[in-house]
Amino acid sequence: GAVVSQHPSRVICKSGTSVKIECRSLDFQATTMFWYRQFPKQSLMLMATSNEGSKATYEQGVEKDKFLINHASLTLSTLTVTSAHPEDSSFYICSARDLLGREAFFGQGTRLTVV
Amino acid sequence: DQQVKQNSPSLSVQEGRISILNCDYTNSMFDYFLWYKKYPAEGPTFLISISSIKDKNEDGRFTVFLNKSAKHLSLHIVPSQPGDSAVYFCAASGAGGTSYGKLTFGQGTILTVHP
Q1: Lowest mean pLDDT among A2-11, A12-21, A23-32, B18-27
Q2: Cβ of A44 and B44 within 8 Å?
Q3: What is the rounded distance in angstroms from the CA atom of residue B82 to the CA atom of residue A27?
């Protein structure tokens, strides 16, 4: 399957700071990438759809000013958690779809801890 | 509103026997279904998928069955192996280009295969 790389895998930051998470499609071009969030022992919840060259589409209840998404190229999308709070601590996962198929391939995830 | 439901939080199976994981959905607009395997602190790994125009798809030890009238799908793993122990997520997506890759996940089922 297609390879999606996410970086960093773990990050600890102080409250009030911003953290950037990168998601790269390594062997294919992805005009659309997706950002999910998973709380402990819960399902993956879609946060937003990242569209190359245009604004992201956010799901209901997700603050667009807090979770900034940039999809500057066909292989890279970034999620920036701004003014991080402890309640933002979670597991963030990106995915991308190969243009020819309907399977979505996921990155390794990023464990964010805000202290 | 949980559109994709996995009602069994956990399943325990003996090695060599069949594992059957179930998933129900409520949104009739879903037309593509996927199963993912996930370990803690890692991104989901794609296992197998099925389009709504089919009722069965097989790939090695994994078979997915879809019953559209019942809005139910199941993943069969046979024979089960200890390495199959993980959390299994059922996911669904709708038709249309903008929905491709945008997944709605179930809550997950923890599968434990005992030697």
Answers
A1: A23-32
A2: yes
A3: 31
Q: Do B60 and B79 form a contact (C-beta atoms < 8 A)?
A: no
Count of all residues that appear for chain B in the document: 115
> Cβ separation of A104 and B106 shorter than 8 Å?
no
Residue B95 reports pLDDT greater than 70: no
Between residues A67 and B100, which one has the greater pLDDT?
Answer: A67
Q: What is the pLDDT of chain B when averaged over all its residues?
A: 93
Is the CB of residue A16 less than 8 Å from the CB of residue B72? no
Q: Which of A107-111, B40-44, B91-95 has the highest mean pLDDT?
A: A107-111
Q: Which residues of A touch B104 (CB under 8 A)?
A: 46
Tell me how long chain A is: 115
Residues B63, A115: Cα–Cα separation, whole Å: 44
pLDDT at B94 over 70: yes
Do A43 and B101 lie within an 8 Å CB cutoff? no
The single residue listed with the structure tokens 């607009």 is B29
Nearest chain B Cα to A3, which residue? B45
Search chain A and give the residue with CA nearest B87. A41
Who's near A12: CB < 8 A, 6+ residues apart? A113, A114, A115
